[in-house]
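Technical annex B. To support the medicinal chemistry partners, we prepared a structural model of the target in complex with benzoic acid, based solely on the information shown next.
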Amino acid sequence: MRNVSEATVTEAVIYKFDGCDNPRLKQIITSLVTHLHAFVREIEPNEAEWFAAIKFLTDIGHTCDDKRQEFVLLSDVLGVSTFVELINNRKAPGLTETSVLGPFFVENSPALPMGATIVQDETPSDLLVEGLVHGPDGTPLAEAVLEVWQTAPNGKYDVQDPNQPEMNLRGKFTTGADGRFAFRTCLPTEYPIPTDGPVGALLRATGRHPWRPAHLHFMINAAGYKQLITALYFEGDQYLDSDTVFGVKDSLVVGPKPTGDGANQSVAYNFGLEPAA
Ligand code: BEZ
Ligand code: FE
C-alpha cells in the first residue's frame, strides 16, 4: 500500500498479516498492532522519545544473561506477570491462590527430611512452617513435593550473596501419607528487587519504590495436579499494600504465632491444589 496516512496506517499493517495461517498468531499480532498504534496515536511521541523507548528496550535486552532476566522484571513491575498469572489461575474457592515466581528460583534445591531446617549458616531457625497439601475436596495429597526458598536476614537470596552457603534457605520436602509437611527456617525480610538495571532506572524516574514485602516462596508439584507457584506473606509488613510486583493476596498473608518457648514462632498453612486439566 502506498501513501499511508495517519488514518490508514493501522489498517495497512494489519492487512500485511492477512495471509497468516495460524489463527491464534494472527489474532495476537492483529491485536498487538491495533493497541500499539492506538498508544502511538494517543501519546504522539516526538522522535527523541521514540528513540529513548527503543534504547530502553535495547538496554533491557543487554541486561539479560543466563542469571538475570530484565524483561521478566519489567513484566513484573508493570503488573503483567501477575495479570497473566490471574488469567491462568482462576481458582475455585478453597484452592490456594498463586503469587509471582520471581527470578530467584533455582532447580535442584536439596531434598531434606521432614522437619529439617533450610538455614545453612549460624542464623537461628526460629520459625516452624507446617501444614497440609490437599485436593479440592480436602483429600490429603501424599508424595507432594514442596520446593521453598526465601531471603536471608540481610534481604538477599543465596544466589545474590557470595557470603551465603550455596543453597542456603532453599529446600525440597515431600509430604507423607497424611499429606503433611513441616520445616524450620528464619523469618524472611523485606527486600528491594534489583535496581541496578533499566527497570531500576524506570522506578526511580517515576518515583516508585523497589520493595517487596517479606515472603516465603513455594512451588508445589503433585502427580495429577496443576503445579502451584505461590508465596506466603507476613502480617504487619509495611510493604503488603505497595508490593512493587503486585504479588500480595489477602489469602496468602499469615501471622506467625509464638510456640511457647519465647524465641520461636510457627506458621500453619494448608495448600489446596487444582486437578490437572
Ligand atoms: C521475588 O519475589 O523474588 C521477586 C519477584 C519479582 C521480581 C523480583 C523478585
Ligand atoms: Fe522473592
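Notes passed to the chemistry partners:
Residues 57 and 232 are 32 Å apart (CA to CA).
The pocket of fe (iii) ion (ligand 2) is lined by residues 102, 104, 215, 217 (CB under 6 Å).
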